[in-house]
Amino acid sequence: MAPWDAQVIRAIRKNPHFARSFWLDRAAALIALMGHPGVIFEENSDILIDVVEGTPEITVSREGDRYVMRVEPMLQMDGNEAAHGYGLSSDEKREWDALRLITVLRDSPQRLRVIRLTPAQRRAAQLIADRLILPADAQPELQQTLQVLASHFQVQSDHAQAAREIPAESQLRAELSPVGDGLMLRLVVAPLGAEGPRFMPGHGHQQVMAAMKGETVGTRRQLGLEKDYLNAVLDALPFLPPPGRADIVCEWVVDDPEEALNLVERLPHLEAVAAIDWPRGKPVRVQTIDVPHLKVAVGSSQDWFSVKGTVTLDEGLVLDLKTLMEAAQGNSRFIPMGEGIYAALTRELRERLNDLAAVAEPEKKGGLCVPPLAASWLDDLLAGTSAEMDGGFRDRIKQLQAAQGLQSELPTDLQATLRPYQEEGYLWAMRLAEAGFGACLADDMGLGKTLQAIAVLLARASSGPALVVAPTSVCGNWRAELERFAPSLHVMAYGAGDRSTILETAGPRDVVIVSYTLLQQAQTQFAARRWYSVVVDEAQAIKNATTKRSLALFDLQADFRMALSGTPVENRLTELWSILRFCNPGLLGPLSRFNEHFAVPIERDRDRDAQRLLRRLVAPFILRRTKSQVLQDLPPRTEMTLTLTPDPEEAAHYEALRRQALAESENALQSGESQAQFHILAQLTRLRRAACDPRLVSPDLGIVGGKVKAFAELAAELAENGHKTLVFS
């Protein structure tokens, strides 16, 4: 049984007149309930109330040419006290006598104040009665009287002076008590210290006197400063409305558990608050957990980095990383620890835990798995924590740092002069390759993505074969550019000649060019061997990760992967996931996880935290420059010639027209027609129209020409990048 319950039980008396009959000594019970943690009102059993002990008070005010002294609470005088004791037992008489000295005041819906008068206080109160009036010239007698009364009452007066004056405490004291799932807050000032009387901040008389440890002491309150402190608290806790009329106590009920715990966490750190007082047995404590409190262990394996972590609270309670992450992703940043103890996550720690949850995957043993591609990100994320990292992780970080310092010279056999931004792109890609990462070069159209990629292929050529994957329409252009800028490389077009021999014999300084279509058809053969470098042009072609084309690219084995795309994201973020799935497999996790943590929150909810994290994850692997950013490095005009190869259907149609034109022209010449020359010119015009688009000649066939397809893609990319297009045909 709790000691406070035992005190209440002692107030139950045995009835001397009847066996097995008991009665409650109400005076003793009221005294026992002071400070009890489980008191309720009968009409509302859901709300706990505070029963506190109060002190009788004497106030002195100047009214014209006189001083008026009053006792609060006012003593209830009974003119026939003896009659009330008639027929009562001795215990009942003692109860009655005690009750006459007790006054119960209800300060608020959740607070009762019990004032007990000693016999000396009662006699003094009887002398003062309703009020005591003294003339203004009786100031010395008033001072002497108040100093005597201050040993029995707390005294408020603007005209009194204690035997010993002490500095006033103007900071506020926060009285907290549980109410349902929330808290009740009462802000008071205790000018004479924690053991002295308490008042509403900024209200009441300036001079206060009371008996403290057998001595009468007094102080002069700084009412203006008390109000300033009150306003400072209200500014710091905006969910608290300002108090109402001056006669209403500064008291609030905070029903929301989250706001209540926020209150407990913030109050101790406010300069305006001197202390926090809790009822007996009801304290709630919030310990703030910040980044430095997190102890993390990072281990390395072949496929993952494992992360485990704990936080130890002051009471020795331990929180593991899983619990912390679940709390960070929940609606509340407070974690209940039992016994009235809560752990509160700071905003920074919560953000880091949420970032970790978005990137890492749960481990069977309770830890987390982070992909090796995110090593640098993880190292930054754990900055400021107490982290223990094994040798494998430290070696990986050193390797990444060394790669960032790499100064790779341009190949001497590159037959081109790169502009400054192109040299930067080349060096960026080479550093990623050195670190074991892939790259997505997303420069604006016309800035030379192909040339930068050729420089990278040439620099890496001696170590193994390279593969270039491109749309059919630009495969010829790739061959021409490679032969022009890197003539020392051996370029082979997959599709012409012995295809199997090309794949089997490709080695250092060899570059194989293949279209998306042929790669998809020979997926198994291309995936069976390892490539030292793979470059994918027009990588937006694999924006749908579930197509056979994309899956064929994902299956490729490569030491370095490079994607070229002027528009890596056209409509949805899953397009970016697909391209980076090729460049850096595993970086963004499975597609379902990417949708959950990034695509849906960003596209549907405009989640800025998700945007920030995604940008931080992908930024090292994507390089994009627009024309406006590198304008000073560009010539007045850049000319680009795209050489296209028609697909088989279009080529067959053109060949049929060519043969028909040749035959008809020969017949016209042999027959000696006078209009033969004009007939031949008409056939040439027809062939030119067919070369533009077969539908200009044979609309019923519905064959879309390669030039129109390429132009549509080109125009779409220009529009996507905000450029204007002027078309001449």
From TrEMBL:
Keywords: ATP-binding, Helicase, Hydrolase, Nucleotide-binding. It comes from Acidithiobacillus ferrivorans. Pfam families: SNF2-rel_dom (PF00176). This is Helicase, SNF2/RAD54 family. InterPro entries: Helicase_ATP-bd, P-loop_NTPase, SNF2-like_sf, SNF2_N. The keyword Membrane does not apply. Gene3D superfamilies: P-loop containing nucleotide triphosphate hydrolases, Tandem AAA-ATPase domain. It comes from the Bacteria. GO terms for molecular function: ATP binding; helicase activity. Residues 430-586 form the Helicase ATP-binding domain.
